[in-house]
Amino acid sequence: MDLILVNIIDGLVTGLLLFMLSAGLTLIFSMMGVLNFAHASFYMLGAYFAYQISMYLGFWMGLLIAPPLVGLIGAAVERYGLRRVHQYGHVPELIFTFGLALLIEEVVQFFWGRDQMPYQIPEALQFVAFSISSYDIPAYKVFMIFLSLIIFGGLLYVLTRTRVGMIIQAALSYPRTVEALGHNVPLVFMGVFGVGTALAGVAGVIAGPVLSTFPGMAIVLGSIVFVTIVIGGLGSLGGALIAALIIGWLTTFAKTYNVRMEDILTTIGFTKPEPIGDSGWQDLWTLTSPQIADILPYLLMVLILVFRPHGLFGKRDA
Amino acid sequence: MGQLAPWVIATAFLVAMPWIFASNSAITIMNQMAITIIFALSYNMLLGQGGMLSFGHAVYMGAGGFMCMHVMNMVQDQGLPLPLPLLPVFGGLFGLGLATIVGSFSTRNAGTVFAMISLGVGELIAASSVIVVSFFGGEEGISGDRTYGLPVFGVEFLRQIEVYYLIAFWLVLSTLLMFLFSRTPIGRMANAVRDNPERAEFLGYSARWVRFYSFCASGFFAGIAGALFAINYEIVTEENLNLGLSGAILLITFLGGIGVFFGPIIGAIVFTLLQTVLSLQTELWQLYVGALFLATVMFFPSGLAGVLMMHVPAIKMGKWRYLVLPYVKTLIPAIFGILGVSAMVEMMFHARHAPTGDEEMGLFWMTVDSTSPLPWLVAAIISVVCFWVTRRNAPELVAAWHMANTPDGGSA
Q: Which residues of A touch B51 (CB under 8 A)?
């Protein structure tokens, strides 16, 4: 029972982190209709910037300064890159963001090298928040959960309750009409892109110390973020939250509970061939759930796309 | 006859190449190039001709490679009477089989759904290559020995050059088949479905099945490329089917140009040269390739082949002479400007990452001190001046371009 509670908290941390990335991505998708392959690269930039700033000014200034910096870079990419490629169609746009992801990784290696950066949790948060029987929950995890929830709440408030949010929502559905009403729609697009990438930057700042800051961190998370928004339904903020939480819990539980294929097959009524080494089914018999934990989200995505191309909460085809 | 000429010339060229570049390393590069060409052409069957953006095409190449390696080992262990030059067929058939399974559900939609399914399937198979040890051999992959098979007309494929001719034979054969496929009604319909699936459906064609057939054919040729890889390197690992390779082939194909049949060939040749030659010169070659790729997407979305094809009207009208001088005036300073910038990039990299005290670095056949201001100043001045000259001469090029593309007497 205690272990379940600990796993729920761990899964929640992973899920909310994924959500912070996928929220920006799904907003950008509903705006421009293109998946931003470089989104996780902005997450990586966030972590590296925050590390560099934290060396001089400490963690908290990093958390404050790095995301706006990342957002500025994102806005510049939209203004001078994507807007130009937009005229050629969707596939070149997708390929552009893909190339951008490659380039950002190379640039990061250029400045910081290939090694992992010693980016640390701030000292103020290096204590145990509470314990569940013998499992300690570090304060940093609680901090991550609260920060993600605050950002989700803030995003929801801005999008649904403020004038700016109304204009953004209108511009997503009827850009021409909004433009005719006198709003600067390209500016809105650039702003949404900047805010989306800044959110990815926040995720990078707080995830960098726990998931380690290294040039491959964008690739590790990059495709999972896509999986999240595809499962949740492209363009749906609520869907992204649900999908992120599902993925977080799915992988955490699969890693902790060692479900073995051998037990499942024996329960169904198969007998294990002896010796196992000679059998062609050896790999199937020795399969365990921690082994496949990381590919479960992909399996889920393929199944969802085959049977429900809209995703869980999407209104249009992916 | 006019259509046949490029094929005859290309084949003669392939036969003659080992005499022109006889060194072993050159033949290794050419083998790699030929394999990449087949792979890139098969990828372009999807992206260029069918309008399907795939992020997991390496899966079919890798699967073909693994199958070919298993067959090769079976020939060795059980003495199957199969000569080595026939083995790529098995790789191709296995790629075809896998593509049939995946294509049965992934080709229902094009666009983002297809791209995402290909990404998911790519991740799944790449991950299972570590889990399913009996087929993929785990992390160390599987290896074999191509020389144990039956000798074909006395050739045992011990030497690199014999493998070169085997690969060249398959290169010509599969390129020809892929070209002919693009001329068949199904190949033509693939173009129609790419441009306007709705209209193609109204004409009575099922967009889904047209995509499915292209997808299967593409998987077949990717499998052949994988089998040739297995024969050439005698080892296949997880790296032959992971997402990195899938991304690289997208880059190669797009760089070459997806709109023209021979585009991917140019892309494969240029990329392999960059990969082998540039990587010997600088550690930062991937940075340059990434920048080149991004510049291609932004400024020349039709790729290198597209840029070449843009000159066809001018050449046909016999007016290409007008373009020579303006090109010389703009491109040569531009090249020097780029070299100046890359010199600064290299110096910055050296100054940041070299161990302290090691201040000397090799740069374009010179030795410079990356911490002293003089080389920085020289590089900066060269780039600024060169870019200024390029910018000043650019209007002249634009004017010449218009002149070369305007028919005589007419006002276009």
A: 91
